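Input structure tokens:
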């Protein structure tokens, strides 16, 4: 079996970094999003302290237990986020902390916040972190300071991570086609993506200027990386797995440099580590056990070379054929999808069941190897190792079986064949987000211009309207595009989703408008520029604009050396609201935004400490805070303060 000790340690340390990003990014936003004076106060959805375990199961979050420590709801969220930051920091810098208990705590802490996060915390990357985080618990050593070698069953858990990565990649590619979005089928999605994505980076503006033929070729490559390449994850040829690793990592890096997708792409890269081994990380050649049967070793080497060459040749051939790639006389590349929706459906009817079969055989093979490896161990170690294989093998089979329900979402016929018992188990496991379906950008938004909600305030209904400027989302057309990741500004993100619908579909926007009308400091901290610093405006409204990138081509009307965007108003989005408007006040009372504060529990050591940290840090700019925490962790590691 390939050596994975270093790979596991790198994976665990990287998962700690992802948790660090997630907790620190959320911490600075808690008062404005979830506090008593925030946009969606958690007090409105949080159930009372549980009286029993069954009662706790109805809303499983540690926040319901923390009042026993004298913490109110916001202090409880602050405490959990701070504990998550400190624990992930410790796990990153110290190998002694890189164990099962630490990762169980990290998962439980993030799950507790997710449970009450409402619309601001229900993104696919939050769900992916919970699923990957749970598998990390199974992978982490029970006793980190004594576990210098890898247990055989760890290979089985690495396989589960590989399976999660396959489901993520394969579904992300397939859903773009099953959605029947004309931009994906026409290979023109990138003509709009760089401009219409939530928070583009400065490089996105330059990528948008590239010619259409290049963008269409890139979309073709995206489909190849997402749909056929993940099958290489399960090939017995190591070189193909390494090739797949670099394909997926390259794709994620391109997304990172053109779009601010917080920790999502970084988490995906961490999952890609399941395709590696220690020999690759250290640059050593793999250790091959000599095969004593004559010619078998030679035949196996030849078979691997033939398999690798044949697989890559087939990948190239079908890529050229299915996307009709042709080089024109001017050295540009013409590309066009040569298959139909009917062809795609037939492919899914065969490939989804095949993926399940491959998964069963591959998982069975990994489990068998783990058992055989355990049998080679001496004495008591053999028994302990075999017990571990049985326990974690059963867990792996259970996780794989449960994952088949979300995996088959992309093909209804196969989904219908999943046994009812597995569906029932998955339904119960969904409470803990142990296995979910994935697939971003099913349909390309912003075709014809990215919609953007611009909030304005004034003291007169007829004149003097001034715009509120958010930290990261487009507003001022001349402001440079930001670099935000790994921080996720959750209000800015939801403003992007709100622009795709109406304010009736996003009722939290009315809460936001009311907080601006009352000049709520916690909410104003989430906004970069408040045009009414002395006193809040009398009126608030929102308009819908369409934003477009400017051009670097001097021949085009959109050419500009000053502005990144140009925009045009499309229509009114949110009608004019006033804080003394009876209907608004009544609605805020119904939503419990206007409420009679409850008496806080008596101050104690825990609450005093949490409030002291909050007052010291405040709600500083998120990117700066997240990067500062990570930089400190790297510095501590470099100095070897908590080695190993």
């Amino acid at each position: 079996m390939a050596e994975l000790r270093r790979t596991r340690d790198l994976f665990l340390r990287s998962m700690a970094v992802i948790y660090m990003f997630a907790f620190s990014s959320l911490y600075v936003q808690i008062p404005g999003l979830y506090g008593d004076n925030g946009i969606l106060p958690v007090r409105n959805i949080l159930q009372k302290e549980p009286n029993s375990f069954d009662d706790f199961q109805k809303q499983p979050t540690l926040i319901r237990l923390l009042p026993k420590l004298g913490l109110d709801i916001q202090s409880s969220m602050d405490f959990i986020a701070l504990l998550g930051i400190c624990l992930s920091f410790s796990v990153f810098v110290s190998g002694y902390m890189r164990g099962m208990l630490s990762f169980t705590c990290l998962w439980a802490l993030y799950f507790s916040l997710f449970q009450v996060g409402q619309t601001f915390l229900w993104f696919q990357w939050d769900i992916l972190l919970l699923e990957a985080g749970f598998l990390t618990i199974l992978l982490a050593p029970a006793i980190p300071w004594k576990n210098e070698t890898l247990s055989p069953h760890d290979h089985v858990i690495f396989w589960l991570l590989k399976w999660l990565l396959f489901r993520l990649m394969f579904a992300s590619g397939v859903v773009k086609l099953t959605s029947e979005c004309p931009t994906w089928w026409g290979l023109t999605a990138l003509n709009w993506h760089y401009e219409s994505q939530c928070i583009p980076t400065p490089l996105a503006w330059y990528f948008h200027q590239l010619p259409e033929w290049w963008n269409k070729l890139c979309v073709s490559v995206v489909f190849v990386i997402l749909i056929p390449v993940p099958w290489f994850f399960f090939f017995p040829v190591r070189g193909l797995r390494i090739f797949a690793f670099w394909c997926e990592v390259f794709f994620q890096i391109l997304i990172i440099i053109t779009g601010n997708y917080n920790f999502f792409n970084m988490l995906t890269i961490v999952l890609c580590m399941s395709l590696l081994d220690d020999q690759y990380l250290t640059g050593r050649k793999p250790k091959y056990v000599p095969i004593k049967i004559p010619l078998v070793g030679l035949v196996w080497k030849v078979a691997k070379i033939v398999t690798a060459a044949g697989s890559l040749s087939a990948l190239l051939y079908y890529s050229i054929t299915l996307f009709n790639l042709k080089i024109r006389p001017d050295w540009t590349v013409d590309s066009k999808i040569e298959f139909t929706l009917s062809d795609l459906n037939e492919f899914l009817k065969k490939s989804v069941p095949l993926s399940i079969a491959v998964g069963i055989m591959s998982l069975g093979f990994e489990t068998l190897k783990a058992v055989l490896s355990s049998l080679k161990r001496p004495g008591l170690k053999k028994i302990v190792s075999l017990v571990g294989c049985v326990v974690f093998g059963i867990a792996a089979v259970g996780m794989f079986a449960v994952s088949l329900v979300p995996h088959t979402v992309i093909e209804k016929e196969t989904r219908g064949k999943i046994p009812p018992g597995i569906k029932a188990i998955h339904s119960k496991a969904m409470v803990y987000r142990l296995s979910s379906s994935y697939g971003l950008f099913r349909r390309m938004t912003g075709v014809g211009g990215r919609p953007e909600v611009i909030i304005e305030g004034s003291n007169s209904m007829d004149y003097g309207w001034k715009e509120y400027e958010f930290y990261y989302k487009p507003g001022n057309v001349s402001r440079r595009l930001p670099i935000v990741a790994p921080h996720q500004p959750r209000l800015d993100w939801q403003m992007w989703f709100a622009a795709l619908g109406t304010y009736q579909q996003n009722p939290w926007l009315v809460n936001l408008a009311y907080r601006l009308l009352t000049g709520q400091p916690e909410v104003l901290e989430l906004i970069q520029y408040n045009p009414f610093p002395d006193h809040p405006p009398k009126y608030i409204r929102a308009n819908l604009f369409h934003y477009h990138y400017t051009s670097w081509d001097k021949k085009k009307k959109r050419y500009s050396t000053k502005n990144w965007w140009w925009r045009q108003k499309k229509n009114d989005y949110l009608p004019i609201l006033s804080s003394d408007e009876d209907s608004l006040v009544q609605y805020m009372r119904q939503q419990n935004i206007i409420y009679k504060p409850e008496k806080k529990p008596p101050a104690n050591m825990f609450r005093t400490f949490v409030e002291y940290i909050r007052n010291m840090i405040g709600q500083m700019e998120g990117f700066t805070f997240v990067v500062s925490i990570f930089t400190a962790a790297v510095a501590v590691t470099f100095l070897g303060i908590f080695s190993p």
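DSSP finds 25 helices and eight strands in the chain. The chain has a mean pLDDT of 93.
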